Amino acid sequence: MEFRTNENQIECVRRIVINKGQSVREQVIVRFDATASVIPPHVRACLTQLENKQLQLWFKERKALSEQLSDESEEQTVLTVMPELLVKAQDALQKIEQLDLELFKRLKVNLRELDEQLNRFHALCDDQLPEYKAMRDTEVLKEKLQVIRASL
């Protein structure tokens, strides 16, 4: 079972193995309001006991992430999101055929300036960020981006 936020909804997605394990089909079992902090009764009824436990863990991790993000400065949140966004940008660049000249120039300038700013740091700390097991990396990223978006 996978839980995904999609706009203002949380989707409970079940993976179904077909063709003797040759492929997997995803099926949205139920959707509910993304502002919920507990499992709504109609959702609980649609999920198995194990899936309900997974969703409870997902809610727990989501709450911990939310608390962590509220304690973090906006700058720290932006910087923790940056590596994941850069990977997505690299993937996007591999998939497109051409790039607008102005966008190309802005990216080059901003990346050079970012590199210069990073080179200022000579002493680095080795703080480990908490690992979220029930929430997929993309869901953690969405939560972080929502915090950033809210401050804009």
Protein architecture, described:
The longest helix has 23 residues, at 49-71. Strands 1-2-3 form a 3-stranded antiparallel β-sheet, with no helix packed on it. The chain starts with a strand and ends with a helix. It has one domain (2-151). It has helices at 41-46, 49-71, 74-95, 101-118, 137-151; strands at 2-6, 9-18, 23-33. The radius of gyration is 19 Å and the shape is globular. A hairpin with a 2-residue loop joins strand 1 and strand 2 (9-18). By secondary structure, it is of the alpha+beta class.
List the helices and strands and how they pair.
Elements: E1 2-6, E2 9-18, E3 23-33, H1 41-46, H2 49-71, H3 74-95, H4 101-118, H5 137-151
Antiparallel strand pairs: 1-2, 2-3
Helix pairs in contact: 2-5, 3-5
Organism: Aliikangiella maris
Protein name: KfrA N-terminal DNA-binding domain-containing protein
